[in-house]
Design goal:
Layout (H helix, E strand, L loop, with lengths): L2 H10 L3 E2 L2 E2 L7 H4 L7 H12 L5 H13 L4 H5 L6 E2 L4 E4 L8 E4 L2 H13 L18 H14 L9 H13 L4 H8 L4 H10 L10
Antiparallel strand pairs: 1-2, 3-4, 4-5
């Protein structure tokens, strides 16, 4: 085959890399879901579904609600140790990734009861708050599966991922009209611009205008 013909054949075919075809591009987030946060009601429904599944429902539900309430990144959640949870004083020391600001969060009463139950059910001396059946810390991948499976169980209309829980609490606090500087501290943001993104998603933020 002439060189020119071979070149035309290559350009007419699907682009290749090495000996295989170039894999399809990952869909953009906006093409997969209408938003990147959940509402408090949606979080509660997914957590309830997780609690009703399998032998570790209590652990799974607690993980989802704790991740939401404290705005944890997935690595902050799965690496959480009991030394960070002062159950006597009802305080959780949140150590932030990505050079975020650490902060002590109050532990609500229902969450405190769930954590105490979780600790009672674990082997004595366990370091990790959330553990696998093998006795090690929960993994990023395992939590993603727990969350997505629970969402699928209630036929949630679009795919979910753990960081949507962190966005969910930022969204909730802004909707509740908490001072934005306090929300910034709660989420560990170093820059206020990182917190301000939640104001764009908050409905009814102008309802008090001209009243």
């Amino acid at each position: 085959m002439p060189v020119a013909a071979r070149l035309k054949l290559v350009t007419d075919e699907t682009p290749t890399r090495g000996f295989g075809r170039v894999p399809p591009r990952k869909p953009r987030n906006e093409d997969r879901r209408p938003r990147e946060h959940l509402t408090e009601t949606e979080v509660a429904a997914i957590a309830k579904a997780a609690g009703n599944r399998g032998r570790h429902g209590h652990r799974d539900r607690t993980m989802i609600m704790l991740c939401f309430r404290h705005g944890l990144r997935v690595n902050e959640l799965v690496n959480l140790k009991w030394e960070a949870a002062n159950l006597d004083e009802a305080l959780l020391t949140v150590r932030r990734d990505k050079k975020g600001r650490n902060c002590d969060h109050p532990i609500p009463g229902d969450e405190l009861r769930e954590l105490r139950r979780l600790k009672r059910e674990q082997p004595s001396g366990s370091r990790w708050v959330f553990m696998t059946e093998r006795g090690g810390p929960m993994t990023d991948r395992a939590f993603r599966l727990i969350l997505s499976t629970a969402a699928e169980a209630i036929a949630f209309p679009f795919p979910v991922h753990p960081h949507m829980l962190r966005h969910a609490v930022g969204y909730k606090l802004i909707v509740d009209r908490q001072p934005i500087r306090e929300v910034q501290r709660y989420l560990g943001h170093r820059r206020i611009e990182s917190t301000e993104v939640y104001t764009d998603a908050a409905p009814g933020q102008f309802t008090e205008f001209f009243r």
